[in-house]
Design brief:
Pfam families: AstE_AspA_cat. It comes from Neohortaea acidophila. Residues 40-221 form the Succinylglutamate desuccinylase/Aspartoacylase catalytic domain. InterPro entries: AstE_AspA_cat (IPR055438), N-alpha-Ac-DABA-like (IPR043795), N-alpha-Ac-DABA_deacetylase (IPR053138). Residues 1-20 are annotated as: Disordered. By secondary structure, the chain is α+β, with helices and mostly antiparallel strands. The protein folds into two domains: 15-243, Zn peptidases (Aminopeptidase), CATH 3.40.630.10; 248-319, OB fold (Dihydrolipoamide Acetyltransferase, E2P), CATH 2.40.50.100. It is 20% helix and 29% strand. It is built from six helices and 19 strands. The strands form three sheets. Strands 1, 2, 3, 4, 7, 8, 9, 10, 11, 12, 14, 17 and 19 form a 13-stranded mixed β-sheet that branches. Strands 16-15-13-18 form a four-stranded antiparallel β-sheet, with no helix packed on it. Helix 1 (55-64) crosses helix 6 (205-221) and helix 4 (157-166) packs across helix 6. The longest helix is centred in the middle third of the chain and has 17 residues, at 205-221. The relative contact order is 0.13. The model has no long low-confidence stretch (mean pLDDT 93).
Length: 321
């Protein structure tokens, strides 16, 4: 079956096109926007809603779709604000309801796989190679609290330059060929970031503005848009960012299913041996005690009472090696 073709871009004509598109045969329609200047320049692709309940990222992408064409000085901005549209409608945590898989663990995907694998394949094969930079917006699913951060790909300097331009104060070094969208792009040589802001499936003007203004700063860095960042009236104008810290993550996973009791708040400073949380059974019997192996601060953590074996519990940010 023929893969649908996304509308053409790099047309050399100023335009602001919006609509819906079906990326894979018999799949769901997703909204899109293409904002293009007449002057040639970089193509920046933005996705949000890879996880359908990370709504701060989705709202920011929807607002970016409403940018006036005059803000685009050169090149092209492509926005896919709700990639996992079925997950958004179902208010699902992480997964695509069609196949029960986490879309952001399927890259680069397969052409003949399940729904999430085919959608990942479409993005990796049809969209990413045609772009010069890529931002994947995320932000605290229904069961997740976090402090804002960006994930760059360790050793990929073009991605790090985007991270420095974003204005975020914490840059996480991501390792290796992880099966996530931004790492897939970086593996192709495309500068890419995962941007995280928001928590527990709740959006606020503050969390939306973090995404929105980070994108605008990066657009200015790429010379697609002008400085200063263009913020909507409801969003605070961004201040000049300070140099960020670069960290790595200690990420313990649950060795057993049960009831999760975190003992540290997001932002808490911890040292090696500190109790991060406990997993108990329904009768209060201790099943597992999770201790830190590093000195650092809790960057994100699971807030759900339920935890399943193999799930990430939290991430402790510590100095990069």
């Amino acid at each position: 079956m023929t893969t649908p073709k996304f509308p053409a871009f790099r047309t050399g004509k100023r335009r602001h096109e919006q609509g819906t598109f079906t990326p894979v045969p018999n799949g769901a329609q997703i909204p899109y926007a293409i904002l293009e200047a007449s002057e040639p320049g970089p193509v920046l692709l933005i996705t949000a809603g890879v996880h359908g309940s990370e709504v701060s990222s989705i709202e920011a992408a929807l607002r970016l779709m409403r940018l006036a064409p005059c803000h685009i000085l050169k090149g092209t901005l492509i926005i896919l604000p709700i990639l996992n549209i079925s997950g958004f409608r179902a208010r699902s945590i992480y997964i695509m309801p069609e196949d029960g898989k986490n879309l952001n663990r399927q890259f680069p995907g397969t052409a003949d796989g399940s729904a999430s694998q085919r959608l990942a394949f479409w993005l990796a094969e049809e969209m990413l190679p045609a772009c010069d930079a890529y931002l994947d917006l995320h932000g605290g699913d229904l069961d997740e609290d976090l402090r804002p951060f960006v994930i760059s790909n360790k050793g990929h300097e073009p991605s790090r330059e985007l991270a420095l331009a974003s204005g975020f104060d914490t840059v996480v070094d991501g390792f290796g060929a992880r099966p996530v969208a931004s790492a897939c792009a970086a593996g192709m040589g495309i500068p890419a970031l995962t941007i995280e802001a928001g928590h527990n499936g709740v959006w606020s003007e503050e969390s939306v503005s973090l995404h929105y203004n980070a994108v605008m700063r990066i657009m200015a860095y790429l010379r697609i848009a002008k400085e200063p960042s263009i913020a909507e009236p409801s969003i605070a104008e961004p201040s000049k960012p300070s140099p960020p810290r670069t960290v790595e993550l200690f990420v313990p996973v649950a060795s057993v299913s049960g009831f999760w009791y975190p003992r540290q708040a997001v932002g808490a400073l911890v040292t090696p041996g500190a109790v991060l949380g406990e997993i108990k059974d329904a009768f209060g019997v201790m099943l597992s005690t999770i201790r830190s192996e590093v000195s650092g601060d809790v960057l994100y953590q699971l807030t759900s009472l339920c935890v399943n074996e193999g799930e990430q519990l939290l991430g402790v940010a510590h100095s990069a090696q």
